[in-house]
Each structure stands twice: as structure tokens, then as C-alpha cells.
Specification:
Helices cover about 75% and strands about 0% of the residues. Helix 5 packs antiparallel against helix 18, helix 18 packs antiparallel against helix 23 and helix 18 packs parallel to helix 24. The chain is globular, with a radius of gyration of 23 Å.
């Protein structure tokens, strides 16, 4: 149960509890943002069910089952490594040339990388496909910036309560596509048995379906999405590129714009701020909380399907890709429905920090259920007790999922001004992307290490508990509600 927080902002909290008229959501653009939330989840979750089997098929582990998790972590982290190196520049660029061009580039990158992934026959080819996607895909960050552009403090929690619809569709359809349509020539010989293409590339069909779906979203975005930031009076794209080659950063360009004296004083305050001006204590607090939470969440997500696929004698559950896909899809449906129905009410009742602390704290019982489930599977096989533990673990993850909309509210409140939302979001996402690189790779490697003979089988659980403790500690520096920060600006 979520417990209300008592802290130094109590007098201001009494003001925040007063009823405030909510601004209606701008549905003419908001429904497009719901579409744009799908591609990242659809593409990554399409790959999740069959990645362990794909790694076995290409032979990179040479038959060593304990190394499957290690290579799965490398594959997932390659995306975030490329993402880390580019996300800040894409986010900062969106403050200058607009959000829409960046979104279209991102969707194109996802489509190309999905086709490339399905056609890859080597581990290097798989890694390159994910790197290309990560380097040119800032869609998640830029979509959040658009959402912050078109909402305010009164309707943003409500807007985020609808986001699970998109996440739920992407997270549900993706595993079903990946789990049911991988190796179609073997699973559906009457339909696909004569296709030499699908025999040669057994994972091309799910990747292609995902890519074509994202192509349709690209078309809708190109036709219907309106630009959410004004680019009037800002440095043209060619000037940004030319001065970038000459070594002048976007931050200095922003400073030139701010000090140019063009327009009225009121307009000058709305120009993007230089990088150094954005590194405030508020932003740093958000970075620490978001990064540690996402470090655990991404590590857990990378280990979970590998844990399911690992043989029982090695500590896993020996589940096949279709069953893994159904489990992941069903859990995402439950998480999405819960967030859709209850997040706004929980936010209004308890505040963002209480929800966030409860969410990261749920990581402790989530981790404890790993060895419990493994022990039951070894003792009794895959029976009712094991399935109860699996369901309980996935149910506890619901509170962890609620942390993400809370962080979006804190990012918006921490931004020094509205014109720097994209850059502020980019700064946070750079550090979060580093956590996403470290999380899957380190968690998967520790998991593989713990499976090897002679090593401590509990190493992965100690690792996760340490991250959860760090996440709870950093969350204590956040205010009871993001409005506390916004009102102090």
C-alpha cells in the first residue's frame, strides 16, 4: 500500500490539494502521440521472445547454455550504447528545427533496422542492426517532449494515464508477433513450408510485420502531426550543421540566440538555454532517480525472458518462445489496464514521489521471487506453485511501471524554461540511456556468471537488491509533488 509522505513542503502541499480546473487534452494531436508511443515497444518486444533461440541458432555460444544470457545482454545493450551517444544531440536539435523532422527520422530508422535484423545471419549483423536503430531513434524522448509542449501541469497526469493504451498494444502485439511467427516454416509448414526465404531467414516474418506496422505510423505522422515548437528566429538547420563542423556546440549557439536582443524581453526568456544553465540541482535529482530506477527495470526485463528460457537444471524454467511471448504480452495488458484506470487517482491521492518510492521498493519482492520460483521448479517441476510465483512476480511489476509517468512529471517541472524542455529531456535521457546500456549487459552477464558451476548462484539477486536500494535512496531527494518545483521557478 502507498503511504503518504510528510516533508518540508507541507504548507505548500495544502495549496496543492485545492481543486484546480484541468485543461482539456488536445485530442487532435494527442491521439497521434499515442500512436507514436507504440513503435519502440512494438519493435523491441517483437524481438524479445525469440532472441534466446536466435542466439542459439547462429551458434555464437557454441552450445554453452550459460552464455545465452550474456550475448542477449550485449545485443540489447548495443542499442542503448548507440542511443546514449546520440540522444542528447537529437533532443537539442528538436528545440531548434522542431520535433516532427526528428520523429520521422526515428521511425525510418526503426523500420530499416527491423528488416536488417530479420535478414541477419551473424551475431555481428544483429548488433549492427540494433546500433543503427539506437543511433537514429530518439522517438521516445522527443515524443515525451511533444507531450510536455502540448500539456500543462493540470492535464499532464491525465495524458499519461492514456499512454498505457499505446504501451499495452505495443507490448502485447510485439511478443505475440515475435513468439508466434518466428520460424514460420517449421511451425506452420502447410502455409510457409514452401518458402525458401523464410527457411533461410526464420525470423524475417515477425520483423517484417513489425516494420510494416511502423511504416503506417510514419505515414500518419507525416500527414497529421503538427509542429509543437516555434522555430521562428532560431538558427536554421544548415547553420547548425556548418557551425557544428567548425566546433561550435548547440549550447553556444543557444547562448548567441538568447543574447541577440531580437524580439521583446518576454520572448528572449523563451529561447533554449545553454547546456550549463540546465544542469541544476533539480535536474540532477531527476537524473539520479530516473537512472537508478531504469537500471533495475531494464536489467530485470533483460534477465526475465532468459530466466524463463534457461533449462530447469540450470536454475530457469525451460519455457519455449511462444509461451514466453504469451506471458510477456499478458503481463503488459494487465499493467496497461491498471495504469489506465488507476494512475490519475493514485497521483491525485498520494503524489508522484510516494508512487515512485513504492514502485522501486517493489523490486525487492520481485527479486526474491526469482530463487523461490527456481527452487520450486527444480523440486516439483512446472506446476501450480511455479505459475503462482510467476504471476505474482509479474503483478508486482505493475507498481514499477507506474514510476515512468512520475518521472515525466518531474522532468517537466525541473526544466528551467519551456523552450528548453527538449534539451532538458535529452540530458536526462542521456544518463538514463547509459543506465540502459549498463543494466541489460551487466544483469545478463551476472546472471550467466551465477549459472556457471562453482559460482555463487545468488550473485544476480544481490546485484538487483543493491540497485533497488540505491533507487530508493535517490528518490528521497524528490519533492512530494512536481508542482513544488514549478511554483518555485
Amino acid at each position: 500500500m502507498i503511504v503518504q509522505q510528510d516533508d518540508e513542503e507541507a504548507p505548500l502541499m495544502q495549496q496543492l490539494e485545492q481543486p484546480t480546473a484541468r485543461t482539456p487534452l488536445p485530442w487532435d494531436q494527442f491521439w497521434i502521440l499515442l500512436l507514436l508511443e507504440m513503435p519502440d515497444f512494438l519493435s523491441s518486444r517483437t524481438l524479445a521472445p525469440f532472441i534466446p533461440q536466435l542466439i542459439r541458432d547462429i551458434g555464437v555460444t557454441h552450445g554453452d547454455e550459460s552464455q545465452v544470457g550474456h550475448y542477449a545482454g550485449i545485443l540489447e545493450s548495443s542499442y542503448y550504447a548507440a542511443h546514449t551517444l546520440t540522444i542528447f544531440h537529437w533532443s537539442q536539435l528538436s528545440d531548434h528545427i522542431g520535433r516532427k523532422p526528428i520523429i520521422l527520422i526515428a521511425l525510418s530508422a526503426i523500420v530499416i533496422s527491423m528488416f536488417s535484423f530479420g535478414l541477419s545471419k551473424t551475431f555481428l549483423g544483429l548488433v549492427v542492426s540494433r546500433i543503427v536503430c539506437g543511433a537514429f531513434d530518439p522517438s521516445d524522448t522527443v515524443v515525451k517532449s511533444i507531450l510536455m509542449d502540448i500539456t500543462d501541469a493540470t492535464n499532464m497526469p491525465k495524458a499519461y494515464s492514456y499512454i498505457p493504451i499505446s504501451v499495452m498494444i505495443g507490448n502485447t502485439v510485439g511478443p505475440l508477433i515475435g513468439g508466434s511467427l518466428s520460424r514460420p516454416a517449421d511451425r506452420f509448414p502447410d502455409i510457409f513450408g514452401r518458402s525458401e526465404l523464410l527457411k533461410t531467414y526464420p525470423y524475417l516474418l515477425p520483423c517484417s510485420i513489425s516494420a510494416l506496422s511502423i511504416s503506417m505510423i510514419w505515414l500518419v505522422t507525416y500527414i497529421r502531426l503538427k509542429e509543437s515548437v516555434s522555430t521562428t528566429g532560431k538558427t536554421p538547420l544548415w547553420e547548425l550543421i556548418k557551425k557544428g563542423f567548425l566546433g561550435q556546440s548547440y549550447s553556444r549557439l543557444s547562448s548567441v540566440i538568447v543574447d541577440s536582443g531580437e524580439g521583446s524581453p518576454g520572448e528572449v526568456q523563451l529561447k533554449p538555454l545553454p547546456l550549463r544553465a540546465l544542469l541544476t540541482l533539480k535536474v540532477l535529482s531527476v537524473i539520479a532517480s530516473y537512472a537508478t530506477m531504469d537500471l533495475f527495470q531494464k536489467g530485470f526485463n533483460s534477465v526475465l525472458p532468459v530466466f524463463y528460457a534457461t533449462p530447469i537444471e540450470l536454475g530457469g524454467l525451460s519455457l519455449d518462445p511462444p509461451r514466453i511471448g504469451v506471458l510477456l504480452a499478458a503481463s503488459d495488458v494487465i499493467h496497461g489496464i491498471f495504469r489506465l484506470l488507476f494512475y490519475t487517482q493514485l497521483h491525485d491521492r498520494f503524489g508522484a514521489r510516494a508512487i515512485f518510492i513504492t514502485g522501486v521498493s517493489s523490486g525487492i519482492p520481485i527479486v526474491i521471487l526469482f530463487p523461490v520460483t527456481s527452487a520450486l521448479a527444480r523440486a516439483y517441476g512446472i506446476g501450480m506453485a511455479v505459475w503462482l510465483c510467476v504471476v505474482l512476480q509479474l503483478a508486482l511489476k505493475t507498481s514499477l511501471v507506474l514510476c515512468f509517468p512520475c518521472m515525466a512529471l518531474f522532468i517537466r517541472a525541473a526544466a528551467p524554461n519551456r523552450a528548453s524542455l527538449g534539451t532538458t529531456n535529452g540530458i536526462v535521457m542521456v544518463v538514463v540511456a547509459v543506465a540502459k546500456v549498463i543494466g541489460p549487459a551487466s544483469a545478463a552477464s551476472v546472471f550467466s556468471y551465477s549459472l556457471q558451476e562453482g559460482h555463487n548462484a545468488w550473485s544476480i539477486y544481490y546485484f538487483f537488491i543493491a540497485i533497488v536500494s540505491l533507487a530508493v535512496g535517490t528518490a528521497l531527494f524528490l519533492p512530494h509533488d512536481p508542482s513544488v518545483w514549478e511554483d518555485s521557478q
